[in-house]
Amino acid sequence: MRPPIEFIDLKAQQHRLAGAVQKAALAAIESAQYILGPQVTEFEEKLAAFCGARHVIGTANGTDAIGICLMTLGVRPGDAIICPAFTFAATAEAVAWLGATPIFVDIDEDSFNLDPAQLPIALDTAKRAGLKPRAVIAVDLFGQPADYDAIENFCRNEKLALICDSAQGFGATYKGRRTGQIGDFTTASFFPAKPLGCYGDGGAIVTNSDESAEIIRSLRFHGKGDDKYEHVRIGMNSRLDTIQAAILIEKLAIFEDEIAARQAVANRYDAGLHDVVKTPSVMPDCRSVWAQYTLRVDPRRRSALMAELKSKGIPTAVYYPKPLNEQEAYRRFPVAGNGLPTSTQAASEVLSLPMHPYLDADTQDYIIESVREALLGRQSIAV
Q: Active site includes 194?
């Protein structure tokens, strides 16, 4: 009998790192420096070296990281932040926290990332609504960087800040630049299912600005000044936990190896499925970390395909079934242009297959064979 197939196999990674992680966590516990202990600084320094950036500041989670970046920019009510609608809610949620307005833009059909061609339309939408455009949040969805040459040019010309929401794409590269070297800020999430994940919640902000880094370190610690009981700004409580930092140090040590393993899994999927279904595409000179491996299937048959794969013990997931502009909490916010048709279409078609560095070839062959059998048996499923 075939063992259960994990959508993301965290147990396999834990087994590989068990001794090192347990030793690191125990050392953090025994040090009794549970808040901003030395492991936090060590992790921040090692992650900065990994990115090739000047500063990494750990936070409690990736959502807080976005919020703190916006706070660092002084975002307030009346400001507009341009962001894609086809993403997890955290991207726009942090904007709404501050009373600012997210302006939703459509995505590129192939990459699922923000379509740079929509940015001028979003800018006009913001100005027509009497809002002050302040920043663009680009999301590195499913592990692939956004099209940053075009996005950076737009932000530079319009004097807008650029925040790279790399919760899913941290560790990816865009034309020789690793995430963390792009934009004014890069935010990371270390939620356990992310390519670089901890054993709870965690996040980070990457920046090359000394001035911004100083403000961020203050904001994550209640807006403190030189002393923790001196408060120079309104901040929040969002510090990376010492034990999680200790775990992340060990995970970072094997991260490059896992990125390569994820690419090997993606290559096998591509080879086995490209002729029967629309497989993911990565932009030239870019490298994805493959947080998800996402197909596009006919929306009339997606549920049937998922059910058939489930009957064979193969888990699947839909990221995301509904764009943010169609969700109750975000319907009141503006969209650029006459709706977001590409986002709406993608939401009806996307289907993600199991993806993690420890997906062995035999199991993956079984998944590929099962998908092919389902698709070839129902030609209308394939896009």
A: yes
Helix residue ranges per DSSP H, the chain: 10-31, 38-51, 62-72, 90-97, 119-128, 148-158, 210-219, 242-253, 255-273, 302-311, 341-349, 361-377
Domains of the chain with bracketed CATH: 10-253 (3.40.640.10), 255-381 (3.90.1150.10)
The single residue of 46, 194, 224, 278 carrying the catalytic annotation is 194
Residues whose CB is less than 8 angstroms from the CB of residue 104 and which lie 6 or more positions away in sequence, other chains included: 83, 84, 85, 92, 122, 323, 324, 325, 330, 333, 334, 335, 336, 340
Q: What is the pTM of this model?
A: 0.96
pLDDT tens column, 73-129: 999 999 999 999 999 999 999 999 999 999 999 999 999 999 999 999 999 999 999
Taking the C-alpha atoms of residue 138 and residue 162, their distance in angstroms, rounded to an integer, is: 7
C-beta separation of 160 from 134 below 8 A: yes
**CA–CA dist 44, 51 (Å, integer):** 11
User: What pLDDT, in 10s, does the model give residues 280-318?
Assistant: 999 999 999 999 999 999 999 999 999 999 999 999 999
What is the widest separation between alpha-carbon atoms in the chain? 68
7 closest CA partner among 295, 307, 316: 316
What number of CA atoms fall less than 13 Å from residue 300's CA on the CB side? 6
Helix (H, G, I), strand (E, B) or coil at 18: helix
